[in-house]
Structure formats: C-alpha cells, structure tokens
Amino acid sequence: MKLYNFSLAPNGMRVSAFLKEKGLTIDVHDLDVRAGDQFKEPFQSMNPFNCVPFLELDNGSIISESVSICRYLEELHPEPQLFGDTAEKRAKIDMWNRRLELDALSPMGHGIRNKLPMFEGKVLAGTRNNIEQSPVVIERAFQMLNVFMGRVDPHLASNDFIAGPEFSIADITGYFLFAGCDRLEYEIPAEFSNVLSWKGRIIDRDCFIL
C-alpha cells in the first residue's frame, strides 16, 4: 500500500505521527498540494475530494481522511493500541477525538484559512474558489476555542491524557490543535491550566518529531 501525503499538511502529519508512535513504515508519495498536484490525474480520480492524506491499498481501493487511515492501520497492527483495547475505551477515545475535531480543530482550521494570505482562494480545503476570507470567521474561531478550552479544562484536572490515563489517537489530534493555535496566533489563556499541563505532557513526545 502507498500513502499519498504532503509533509507540511497538518492532517498528513497526524498520520505520520501515528505511524511513528506505532513504529510502522509504509511507502509514502509526497504530493505538492501548493502546486495543485491533487487536482491532476491520476490523483483527481483517486481522491475527488482533493485533500491529503489518502491511502491506496494493494487492491487499488482508496481510503482518505486521516483518522480513517489510522483506524485501518490499527486494525492491521493493533499494538500499541491507540484506539483502545476494550469497547469502553474505544468509545471514549472516539468521543474525545470527535469533540476535538468538531469543536476545536475545525473552527481553528477555518480561522487559519481565513487569516493567512497563503490561503486566499483556498478557504475551503481541497478547493480553489472565489470565497473571500472573512475576519468574522477568524473572530468566531477565537471565541469557539475559548469555549472549548473552558469545557475541557475541568476534565483534564483528573486525566493525564484527553481520553484517560493512556496516550491515544485523540492526543495526536490534540497536538495538532496546539500547533494550529500557534499558526492562528491564539494563545491559550493561563486560566486553563489543565489544558496547558496536558500540552506540556504531549508536546515533546517523540512521535511528533517529524
């Protein structure tokens, strides 16, 4: 199988961090998405949503979306467990990963794409269009991140990692949330000390040295 990726793309880096934490090596083909490789054939036909990463299986089937790729790889290589080894753990890890993606990573990503000049004409990932960048979206991203941090901070008072005592795919998502906050120039308020402590526990983990 072959992973099609872009080394600087946050979602691609999520898969790279997952592979490193697992100790796995697979064939990787780097696409230059800034030059529009993803819109060219055969990549357009392979992944019509035009985003990276996507995984080509040996039978020619394609899996896109970073967490879906990681879940597939976990099925093939279950140790070390990053999606949980019981029904309860799997559900809780999935729950926290979804919360991170929907309530924090998504608004943050929209904020970045509406803030940085390099995303002009590209505010929707995988597209080229005339949707204008909007300062309202940036402001909303800051507001939503503040709400999310306030909701998750009490939970982290009694949990070393976001989904419990063990490092998981949800913490990988969390790392790239923190990395995106830097790009957005969003500084996590000091009052969310438990969030900052969680960041400190994962920020220097070896899997994130890519």
Annotation keywords:
210 residues, alpha+beta, Glutaredoxin, 2 domains, four-stranded mixed beta sheet, 7 helices, 4 strands
Question: What do these coordinates show?
Answer:
α1 links the parallel β1 and β2. The protein has 2 domains: 2-76, 3-Layer(aba) Sandwich (Glutaredoxin), CATH 3.40.30.10; 87-208, Glutathione S-transferase Yfyf (Class Pi), Chain A, domain 2, CATH 1.20.1050. It has helices at residues 10-22, 43-46, 66-76, 87-115, 135-156, 169-184, 193-202, and strands at 2-5, 27-30, 54-56, 62-64. It has 210 residues and is an alpha+beta fold.
Strand tally is: 4
- Report mean pLDDT, rounded to a whole number: 97
- Tell me the radius of gyration: 17 Å
* Global morphology: globular
Contiguous runs where pLDDT drops below 50 for at least 5 residues: none
Separation of the first and last Cα atoms: 21 Å
Class by helix and strand content?
Answer: alpha+beta
Order of helices and strands: EHEHEEHHHHH
| CATH secondary-structure class of the largest domain | Mainly Alpha
Major beta sheet summary: 4 strands, mixed
Number of helices: 7
Strand order of the largest sheet: 2-1-3-4
Tell me what the CATH architecture of the largest domain is: Up-down Bundle
Residue share in β-strands = 5-15%
Short description:
By secondary structure, this protein is α+β, with helices and mostly antiparallel strands. Helices cover 50% and strands 7% of the residues.
What's the layout of helices and strands?
Elements: E1 2-5, H1 10-22, E2 27-30, H2 43-46, E3 54-56, E4 62-64, H3 66-76, H4 87-115, H5 135-156, H6 169-184, H7 193-202
Parallel strand pairs: 1-2
Antiparallel strand pairs: 1-3, 3-4
Helix pairs in contact: 1-3, 1-6, 4-5, 4-6, 5-7
